[in-house]
Specification:
Elements (H helix, E strand, L loop, with lengths): L2 H17 L5 H15 L9 H31 L1 H13 L4 H12 L5 H19 L3 H18 L4 H10 L3 H29 L24 H39 L6 H13 L9 H10 L6 H13 L11 H12 L2 H20 L3 H34 L2 H6 L7 H22 L2 H14 L4 H4 L3 H11 L9 H10 L3 H29 L4
Length: 532
């Protein structure tokens, strides 16, 4: 069966089961993975086994991070740390700039906390501001929405961007840095649209039907600001530091190995050539040359002296792929990178932050260990479902690779360069947007789209830029077309006390603005600063 037809069947199963049968996204993704695996080439006896193996591999990659992020989010809310961060923004910027304070609060808190929880936290503050000013209710609400949705789709460890980075092989620290960098101008553009919405969508603050306004805690009941920020900022710092340290270590390796490659003119035996060939193929540096056996013979026959420029380029490739990262030549940069590789590992970074968040909760609320366990259990119940969904998406993507989708897609695209790169970024954005409009969930749209594009086997030579821009394009697309089939739509409508039409004119517009602007910025940066 044609790989493209298998792809269409797989996507149709995901969308059909979620929309028509109202099935959980995990069930839909696993069903699609099994169907794609059965339709793909391979030994019949392993077609189900490989689905389970791919599922387990995905859990191993992101399971701990998502679980720890869920604990952090729950503890930040219950301890009052999230509330403290919001009040700090408000005091720093003042009442006149309160929309920026609300947007900044949503931007920061949506990194470890789910969007609906952040919105639930900040809406009482927006309503309180309106009571004092008697104006600008919509700008308060939309500023919260804009800040929250930007980091919800662009910055890990939120599950959507976390999965996309993992599926596309994007360094997590780079994904965090670029998500924040692109998120800032996106937020500025979104604020302009918030003001336009506030001007043209005249909505007064309405009382809750049969409900009461939420009461806020006293300042004395909240933890200090620095401790409140620590569980959010610590993993970002540790993971980003690891990324930066690896860049300097790679440069150190390049400087060390370039003269070695220049002077290398040694005939290798078949055994040594085979080892090097496997390393190069596994690192996807020379995978386009065919099999390991063919590459082995090419390496064995190679006795050509190369110039310094060519050696520099080859050294760059080998060290960035960690082919020579065996620790035999260790300089200061590599020693630092070895330390940050431990502390900046996402699993450990989020684990340390989760411990701090739990200690903060125990300290400020004076709760027993049993109550703490209950809070952790509650957070893991929601986090567990997200882990299942993301791992199901990982299995779906792995089975698309088994179907051979890569070769079919390559035949439809130009052979690399500017046009191919732009086409792929636009296609990723459009696919993510269509999936979001069809089934409603931004996270599922990002998981499904990144699974498809990861299976297509693109290289940086084809798209002309780092895969982080492809990840941003997918995240931006997942904000397009927010309407009645999205749970976030109803959260904004009910908590903001808006009608369906008012929500379409406001929340749908602001989310589409954030998605489109982040995509445009990503495309521009991919051409100006490709990072390859």
């Amino acid at each position: 069966m044609s790989p493209l037809l298998i792809l269409i069947i797989g996507v149709a199963i995901v969308i059909g089961m979620i929309i028509i049968l109202r099935m959980n996204a995990f069930v839909a993704l696993i069903t699609a993975a099994i169907a794609v695996s059965l339709l793909s080439p391979g030994i019949i006896s392993v077609k189900i086994t490989r689905v389970a193996e791919a599922f387990g591999s995905a859990v191993g990659s992101i399971g701990i991070v998502i679980a720890m992020a869920s604990i952090i989010g729950k503890c930040l809310m219950d301890s009052g740390a999230a509330d403290r961060i919001v009040r700090a923004f408000m005091r720093m910027l003042g009442e006149k700039r309160s929309p920026w304070a609300l947007m900044g609060s949503g931007f920061v808190l949506s990194i470890p906390v789910f969007f609906d929880t952040v919105f639930y936290l900040l809406v009482p503050l927006a309503r309180s501001l309106y009571k004092r000013t008697q104006k600008n209710y919509m700008i308060y609400l939309m500023a919260i929405c804009a800040g929250g949705c930007i980091t919800h789709t662009l910055v890990p460890p939120t599950p959507g961007p976390l999965f996309v980075a993992n599926a596309l092989g994007v360094d997590l620290g780079l994904m965090i840095l670029m998500g924040v960098i692109i998120g800032f101008p996106t937020a500025i553009a979104a604020m302009f649209v918030c003001k336009m919405i506030n001007r043209f969508v005249k909505v007064p603050m309405r009382p809750y039907s049969g409900g009461t306004e939420l009461e806020s805690l006293q300042d004395s009941d909240l933890p200090p600001l620095l401790l409140s920020l620590l569980p959010v900022v610590l993993p970002v710092i540790l993971i980003s530091t690891n990324t930066i340290a690896n860049v300097f270590a790679g440069r150190e390796h390049v400087n060390e190995f370039t003269p070695r490659i220049v002077s290398a003119q040694i005939e290798t035996n078949e055994k040594d050539a085979g080892k090097l060939a496997k390393k190069l193929v596994n690192a996807k540096i020379l995978s386009n040359l065919g099999s390991v056996e063919k590459l082995t013979s090419e390496i064995q026959k190679a006795k050509v002296r190369i110039n310094k420029d060519d050696a520099q380029a080859l050294a760059d490739k080998l060290t960035s792929a960690a082919v020579f990262g065996d620790g035999k030549t260790i300089g200061p940069a590599q020693k630092s990178a070895d330390i940050t590789a431990v502390l900046g590992n996402p699993n450990l970074a989020l684990f340390l932050s989760a411990i701090i968040a739990m200690l903060l909760l125990v300290w400020k609320r004076k709760i027993s260990l049993r109550k703490l366990t209950e809070a952790v259990d509650e957070s893991l119940m929601s986090g567990g479902l997200i882990i299942l969904i993301t791992a199901g998406g990982g299995a779906f993507g792995a089975m698309l690779r088994e179907a051979g989708i890569q070769k079919s897609i390559e035949s439809l695209l130009p052979t690399g360069g500017y046009n191919a790169g732009i086409m792929i970024l636009v296609a990723a954005f459009a696919a993510s947007a269509l999936l979001k409009m069809a089934q409603g969930s931004s996270t599922v749209a990002m998981i499904t789209t990144s699974s498809m594009f990861a299976a297509m086997g693109f290289t940086t030579d084809i798209i002309g830029c780092n895969f982080v821009y492809l990840a941003i394009a997918i995240g931006g697309g997942a904000l397009i077309g927010t309407w009645m089939n999205d749970s976030g739509f109803w959260i904004v409508a009910r908590m903001g006390v808006l009608s369906e039409i008012e929500t379409l004119k406001s929340w749908t517009v602001i989310s589409a603005t954030c998605g489109t602007v982040s995509f445009i910025i990503a495309v521009l940066l991919s051409r100006v600063m490709p990072l390859v």
